[in-house]
Amino acid sequence: MMLATGSLRVVLVTTHIPLKEVPAQVTTERVVCCGRLAERALRDWWGTPSPRLAVCALNPHAGESGLFGDEDERVLAPAARTLGAVGPVPADTVFVRALRGEFDAVITPYHDVGMTAVKVAGFGKGVNVTLGLPFPRVAPDHGTAFDIAGRGVADPSSMRAALELAADLARRVRR
């Protein structure tokens, strides 16, 4: 899953799982797989010939040499090297750098670190792009909002952004 808003593109390695389960689910292989899917989408759908990826750290300060956990050095650093990506980069700086144009996408280890960045950067304009399909598939970056369904208060901005991105990607897709 890739979330996109403006120039920010974020790929989630894990989605809706408890935070305590994230370290076991974030493997080098899974991060590399997500990175490869992102590279393919960026090349084929966004027309980016040499995608620049960053891998977001799991722990504060990217683990601070093991002080805050070893997952960043043990799992994420090898994945970043395999991908030719920068990282792991602490979450408190990686998205700023991406928004400044340093990276074409950020691979994030868990749902909320990626979703928070997307929603802060463009609340109501985020798009969920499904990776790994032979064609672009998009949706608004939020859920169904059953709590407000039928009340006439829903904001269609994210749906509009999804439709606009779908049209843009369809025009650019390489055949």
Provide structural commentary:
With 175 residues, this protein is an alpha/beta fold. The protein has a single domain (2-172), classed as Isopropylmalate Dehydrogenase (3-Layer(aba) Sandwich), CATH 3.40.718.10. It is 41% helix and 17% strand. The protein has six helices and seven strands. It has helices at 22-25, 28-44, 71-83, 91-99, 111-122, 157-172; strands at residues 2-5, 8-12, 53-56, 86-89, 105-108, 127-130, 137-140. A seven-stranded mixed β-sheet has the order 4-3-5-2-1-6-7, sandwiched between helices. A hairpin with a 2-residue loop joins strand 1 (2-5) and strand 2 (8-12). Helix 2 runs parallel beside helix 3 (71-83). The chain is globular and about 50 Å long. The two termini are 22 Å apart.
Could you give a quick summary of the protein structure above?
By secondary structure, this protein is of the alpha/beta class. The protein has helices spanning 22-25, 28-44, 71-83, 91-99, 111-122, 157-172; strands at 2-5, 8-12, 53-56, 86-89, 105-108, 127-130, 137-140.
Protein topology:
Layout: E1 2-5, E2 8-12, H1 22-25, H2 28-44, E3 53-56, H3 71-83, E4 86-89, H4 91-99, E5 105-108, H5 111-122, E6 127-130, E7 137-140, H6 157-172
Parallel strand pairs: 2-5, 3-4, 3-5
Antiparallel strand pairs: 1-2, 1-6, 6-7
Helix pairs in contact: 2-3
- Write down the secondary-structure element order: EEHHEHEHEHEEH
List the uncertain runs: none
Return the structural class: alpha/beta
Predict the CATH topology.
Answer: Isopropylmalate Dehydrogenase
Overall body shape? globular
Distance linking N and C termini: 22 Å
Percent of residues in helical segments? 40-55%
Q: How many separate domains?
A: 1
Averaged pLDDT:
92
DSSP helix count?
A: 6
Q: What is the second-level CATH architecture?
A: 3-Layer(aba) Sandwich
What CATH first level would be assigned?
Answer: Alpha Beta
- Compute the number of strand runs: 7
The CATH superfamily is known as Isopropylmalate Dehydrogenase
Rg is: 16 Å
- Estimate the strand proportion: 15-25%
Largest sheet: 7 strands, mixed
Widest β-sheet, arrangement of strands: 4-3-5-2-1-6-7
